[in-house]
């Protein structure tokens, strides 16, 4: 190490530390050389690297063939995992409520041929942390993912989740931190390292880590990109106790000197995952300064003043907990304050992305029960939380705040062992499949599984009797016990139970509850035993009778199925839809044909007279003329125009084979839309599930999507400001209905201009409930936990960061739509006058902060009649709706009220200009005409249904000095336009 030569005292101190560390590394260090076959000790750091044994139960060891730096032996092997599991987990020992650095490295190299690109996810406990993407171009580049986390139990699970190819990992490290370090981290927040700089070193200096840094942080040298004066010292730089993040002394002994401009790019992926940024800049005097010397530094971030300090020999630190950056990154600049006579100085820096951690865990009782199940059936290689962030491949969980296990499917896995009695603790279980294995022992008491509907134990080696306690399961509808070694009578409470499908064939020692079960006696001398012959005759007769009965039943079932053949029903997970109303009410030509069966569930019948009806596939094909006219495409699949025999026009959505979420969307859309009815929501008229196809049939909206009237190459027409206001109010009312008047309440989750459809009269309706979620009861601030779904550009940043969906997530998305309506621009696009990406929210926010509403208004609006106060009202409403924190956003009721006020302003303006004529008639004024606009609510003689008494609607947008301002593109500027006065 070159720094050991800076001074004799430093040399002795560092050497002593090094030797001590080499002999015994710091307590609590976990250093896994993934894929290695033996342990080793790093000769420089003294860190002991161990194999994967004891930390993970899956995967194969693989050697890396490419040449790797000899000082990085831990990168010369990797652990390779299959893609046939939902996750592979390392379990790392930890101390509850202690903070750690968790670091994973991935080097694919050329241990085998790499595809063009593949990826996998990584998770920390219940939190889906990142995606690792590997391409053929960067297989020899190590990828480092480092986090600061707090242990919420006595272990930390680090899991790899297959996405598009098998996961790999090269090394995994856990490093304990001192109390108070990175104190923003707690059980709801974790940090991801973006960059950690050791300023002032040369590009040839090695990365500083343990033992120079007792916490084994990796302090990197910036490299030749930063050409600035540097300096170093050999004197002691003391880090005071109040500096909790404790930069190592060797890092503080070097520095950048002079005026500094420093740009740190932050990938878009980080921006989407991140709540804020935890930033630390470290300053310490390393030069000899005379009494008159003053080193006073001013720091700006993206041109905004951040802070200033006098640099002394002891370490000074500037912290930033809520750093907001734009789409490009963060621009730091250091300069001297006017009182200074020495240049600025910077010794080190750290930037972390602050992210929300999922604090949920699977129900503790269910976890304990599954531990017993795994031990009893040889499934101990499954580690990590059973349900989060994704469940075990053989488990299905509900969506509660403490998830419960509802399904276990372990069929055809050749499992051996016994069924543990602790299985009865999984009281939310509805379905249990353990069939086609080699499970032995007896069937335990499962009478506590009051929700269990399906129990499949056939084709095993289970012995003993059928427990009478199974009759105590009120929801049980399928009990399959065939082909085991069960004996004794079949309980009458099961054999005679209505609605229970019971199968017990293949158990030769079972008998009816009314019979005396025969006991097979040993044959007498010569095999001529009378009782044996009688028993044989009884058994033979019984078997013969059973065979005859089964043949008759099979024939009757075959004839019944032929007679009753019809399109298969939608999965039983959906709500029942109009079981009585469907009969005889088909849309078939001439009234012939069958209607698809009603959709069933354990819930009550929806009971609405306008419920969705079942269609056969032949009906759908006739209505669309063989899918002749395609009118759209969505995540569910293509959309076709159709016409029913009664003349009704319909839009037919056909599930694409490429859709990975078709079944879920199908179930959600049918079950939700069939019971949701509002004039501003697109009506679901019917459905079809037949021959592997899932089809949804909606009312046809002839004017297409709102987006097609705002921008793009496929525009179908333009909209005046009055029309846009009416469309916005319609859509807002539809959302308000979902949020407040539905029972249960519904969160749409994918509001965008493409999901707001227009009919021939330009009435708008909200469409596409494919990924909707039921809202939680009561207070909506906590939301419902869900994996992030939606459309880029419309996603609520809180939802993205926390995986907690609330009604305010819809409000955020609708705020983006309002900006589209005002600006006539996409959420993310290329500026017309500049070749650069822009974010609609930040661009609009910057212009509004400059009081420059005119620069963002769609020129189409300017060409017609509009009221500036009305525009300001909607702009304020939009910016309030896209506030970063949901608590600061309005609810949809407030949004409807604000839009109604804006319409009243607009109508008052139209009435004033047109002399009281039709307020919706277009008015073309000269762009150079100066007009006065009403600045208070006016009385309108003729008000449509949108307008009404709104009360005092307070402005919802309060500009913040932290908002970034992006340059205007000058679109539609007009020198004759009168700008509004400051508000």
TrEMBL record:
Location of region: Disordered: 912-983
Superkingdom of origin organism: Eukaryota
UniProt GO molecular function: ATP binding; protein kinase activity
Protein's cellular compartments: Membrane
Signal sequence annotation: 1-24
One Gene Ontology cellular component: membrane
Membrane-related topology note: Single-pass membrane protein
EC top class, as a word: transferase
Keywords: Glycoprotein, Leucine-rich repeat, Membrane, Repeat, Signal, Transmembrane, Transmembrane helix
Domain Protein kinase: residue ranges: 625-903
EC number(s) from the headed UniProt entry: 2.7.11.1
Transmembrane segments: 538-560
Polar residues compositional bias, start-end: 922-941
Catalytic activity as recorded in UniProt: L-threonyl-[protein] + ATP = O-phospho-L-threonyl-[protein] + ADP + H(+); L-seryl-[protein] + ATP = O-phospho-L-seryl-[protein] + ADP + H(+)
PANTHER family hit by this protein: OS07G0107800 PROTEIN-RELATED, REPEAT FAMILY PROTEIN, PUTATIVE, EXPRESSED-RELATED
Protein's name according to its UniProt entry: non-specific serine/threonine protein kinase
């Amino acid at each position: 190490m070159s720094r050991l030569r800076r001074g004799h005292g430093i040399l002795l101190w560092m050497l002593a530390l090094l030797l001590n560390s080499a002999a015994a590394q710091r307590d609590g260090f976990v250093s896994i050389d993934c894929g290695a076959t033996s342990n080793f000790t790093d000769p420089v750091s003294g860190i002991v690297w161990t194999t994967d044994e004891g930390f993970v139960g899956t995967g194969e060891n693989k050697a890396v063939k490419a040449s790797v730096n000899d000082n990085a032996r831990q990168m010369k092997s990797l652990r390779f995992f299959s893609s046939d599991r939902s996750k592979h987990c390392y379990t790392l020992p930890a101390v509850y409520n202690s903070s750690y650095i968790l670091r994973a490295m991935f080097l694919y190299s050329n241990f085998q041929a790499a595809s063009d690109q593949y990826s996998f996810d990584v998770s920390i406990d219940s939190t889906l942390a990142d995606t690792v993407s590997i391409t053929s171009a960067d297989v020899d580049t190590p990828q480092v993912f480092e986090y600061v986390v707090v242990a919420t139990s006595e272990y930390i699970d680090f899991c790899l989740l297959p996405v598009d190819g098998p996961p790999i990992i090269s090394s995994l490290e856990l490093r304990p931190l001192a109390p108070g370090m990175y104190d923003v981290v707690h059980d709801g927040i974790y940090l991801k390292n973006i960059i950690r700089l050791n300023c002032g070193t040369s590009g040839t200096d090695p990365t500083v880590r343990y033992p120079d840094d007792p916490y084994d942080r990796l302090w990197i040298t910036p490299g030749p990109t930063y050409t600035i004066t540097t300096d170093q010292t050999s004197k002691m730089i003391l880090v005071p106790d109040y500096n909790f993040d404790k930069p190592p002394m060797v890092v503080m002994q070097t520095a950048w000197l002079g005026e500094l401009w420093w740009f740190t790019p932050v990938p878009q992926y980080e921006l989407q995952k991140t709540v804020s940024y935890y930033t630390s800049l470290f300053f310490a005097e390393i030069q000899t300064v005379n009494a008159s010397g003053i080193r006073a530094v001013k720091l700006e971030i993206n041109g905004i003043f951040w802070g200033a300090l006098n640099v002394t020999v002891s370490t000074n630190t500037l912290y930033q907990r809520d750093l907001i950056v734009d789409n490009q990154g963060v621009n730091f600049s250091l300069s001297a304050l006017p009182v200074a006579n020495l240049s600025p100085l910077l010794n080190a820096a750290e930037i972390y992305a602050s992210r929300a951690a999922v604090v949920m865990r699977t129900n503790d009782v269910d976890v304990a029960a599954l531990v017993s199940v795994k031990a009893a059936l040889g499934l101990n290689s499954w580690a990590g939380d059973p349900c989060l962030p994704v469940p075990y491949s053989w488990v299905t969980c509900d969506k509660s705040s403490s998830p419960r296990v509802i399904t276990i499917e372990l069929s055809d896995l050749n499992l051996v062992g016994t069924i543990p009695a602790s299985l009865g603790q999984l009281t939310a279980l509805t379905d249990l499949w353990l069939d086609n294995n080699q499970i032995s022992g007896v069937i335990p008491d499962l009478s506590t599984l009051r929700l269990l509907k399906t129990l499949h134990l056939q084709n095993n080696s289970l012995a003993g009797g059928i427990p009478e306690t199974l009759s105590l399961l009120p929801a049980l509808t399928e009990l399959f016990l065939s082909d085991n070694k069960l004996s004794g009578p079949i309980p009458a409470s099961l054999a005679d139970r209505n609605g229970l499908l019971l199968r017990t064939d293949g158990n030769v020692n079972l008998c009816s509850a009314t019979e005396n079960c025969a006991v097979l006696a040993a044959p007498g001398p010569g095999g001529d035993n009378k009782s044996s012959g009688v028993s044989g005759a009884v058994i033979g007769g019984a078997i013969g009778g059973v065979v005859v009965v089964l043949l008759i039943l099979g024939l009757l079932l075959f004839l019944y199925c032929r007679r009753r053949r019809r399109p298969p029903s939608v999965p039983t997970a959906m709500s029942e839809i109009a079981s009585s109303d469907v009969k005889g009410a088909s849309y078939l030509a001439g009234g012939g044909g069958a209607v698809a069966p009603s959709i069933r569930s354990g819930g009550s019948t929806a009971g609405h007279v306008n419920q969705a009806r079942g269609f056969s596939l032949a009906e759908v094909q006739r209505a669309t003329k063989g899918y002749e006219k395609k009118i759209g495409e969505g995540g569910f699949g293509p959309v076709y125009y159709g016409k029913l025999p009664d003349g009704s026009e319909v839009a037919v959505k056909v599930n694409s084979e490429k859709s990975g979420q078709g079944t879920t969307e199908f179930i959600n859309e049918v079950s939700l839309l069939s019971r949701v009815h509002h004039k501003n929501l697109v009506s679901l008229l019917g459905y079809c599930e037949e021959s592997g196809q899932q089809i949804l049939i909606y009312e046809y909206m002839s004017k297409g999507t709102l987006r097609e009237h705002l921008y793009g190459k496929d525009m179908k027409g333009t909209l005046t400001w009055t029309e846009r206001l009416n469309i916005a109010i319609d859509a807002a009312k539809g959302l308000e209905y979902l949020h407040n008047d539905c029972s249960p309440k519904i969160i749409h989750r994918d509001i965008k201009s493409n999901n707001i459809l227009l009919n021939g009269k330009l009435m708008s309706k909200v469409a596409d409930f494919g990924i909707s979620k039921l809202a939680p009861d009561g207070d909506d601030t906590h939301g419902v936990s869900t994996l992030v779904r939606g459309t880029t550009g419309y996603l609520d940043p809180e939802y993205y960061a926390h995986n907690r969906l609330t009604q305010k997530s819809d409000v955020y998305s609708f705020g983006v739509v309002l900006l589209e309506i005002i600006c006539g621009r996409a959420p993310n696009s290329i500026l017309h006058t500049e070749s650069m990406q822009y974010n609609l929210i930040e661009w609009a926010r910057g212009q509004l902060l400059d009081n420059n509403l005119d620069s963002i208004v769609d020129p189409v609006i300017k060409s017609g009649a509009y009221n500036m106060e009305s525009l300001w009202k909607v702009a304020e409403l939009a910016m309030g709706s896209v506030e970063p924190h949901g608590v600061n956003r309005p609810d949809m009721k407030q949004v409807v009220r604000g839009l109604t006020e804006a319409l009243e302003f607009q109508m008052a303006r139209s009435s004033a200009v047109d002399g009281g004529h039709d307020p919706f008639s277009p008015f073309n004024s000269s762009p150079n005409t100066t007009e006065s606009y009403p600045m208070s609510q006016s009385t309108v003689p003729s008000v449509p249904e949108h307008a009404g008494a709104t009360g005092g609607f307070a402005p919802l947008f309060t500009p913040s000095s932290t908002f970034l301002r992006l340059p205007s593109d000058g679109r539609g500027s007009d020198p004759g336009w009168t700008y509004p006065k400051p508000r």
